[in-house]
Amino acid sequence: xxxxxxxxxxxxxxxxxxxxxxxxxxxxxxxxxxxxxxxxxxxxxxxxxxxxxxxxxxxxxxxxxxxxxxxxxxxxxxxxxxxxxxxxxxxxxxxxxxxxxxxxxxxxxxxxxxxxxxxxxxxxxxxxxxxxxxxxxxxxxxxxxxxxxxxxxxxxxxxxxxxxxxxxxxxxxxxxxxxxxxxxxxxxxxxxxxxxxxxxxxxxxxxxxxxxxxxxxxxxxxxxxxxxxxxxxxxxxxxxxxxxxxxxxxxxxxxxxxxxxxxxxxxxxxxxxxxxxxxxxxxxxxxxxxxxxxxxxxxxxx
Length: 302
Description:
The protein has helices at residues 2-15, 18-25, 29-43, 59-86, 99-104, 106-116, 129-137, 199-210, 224-232, 242-251, 280-298, and strands at residues 48-50, 55-57, 91-98, 120-127, 143-147, 155-169, 189-194, 215-221, 238-241, 255-256, 264-273. It has 302 residues and is of the alpha/beta class. One of its GO terms (molecular function) is transcription cis-regulatory region binding.
């Protein structure tokens, strides 16, 4: 179908590389090349200059690229209008989520969504907040679900849920003997942190900076599971989402330490580019996301 050829052509044009385009489209590199050859044969013109390092458009390629973008936008619009007539939610959604949301909240939400809209194809990418934001900007995913403070004039950022953050320690840590700790007791402690780019890391860094806390030593892990295990082993203390440590708090593997006059909270947000292409499937997904957040809040979980 000509639409598929155009999608491949636009992706290669924007990525300037056949391998990256193939990866994004879940196609083989020979498959991508075949789509481009079919277009060139149909139009009777060379569209791209190929080299081992990158791809450059010919003059004909530039003309087609501009027209192809408009054709694909009109095609997507037609599909949405037809779906509205049929009152059937179909299509595909590629969701990106930061680790906290992707590992602790999204699976249940996806199961409910798929049960209600079985004709929608879902794909999920999980990374830290910075990685998800970049994928949204590059339009590698339709929308991102991220934690913490995200900014960007090119983005639509919609907070949909509050996330409670907790200071956690091993059950035998000296802080556990204090009913409510003063923040000054956290001076010269060992801290367990997530990697740079993580929303949890940004939250922890801001807390340490605002309260002028000097750290004795830090240990950095690129997953919340690693942070939890390090804290439970007595390696240090950490700030984590309640969603991340809920089971460990219930089992007694970790302890939450209240701080005088301090309550941690951050936003969970939906992010999309300002020029994102809306679809009924995406609209229903976001709607269900918001409704789920309201239910959790009503049950004292959000």
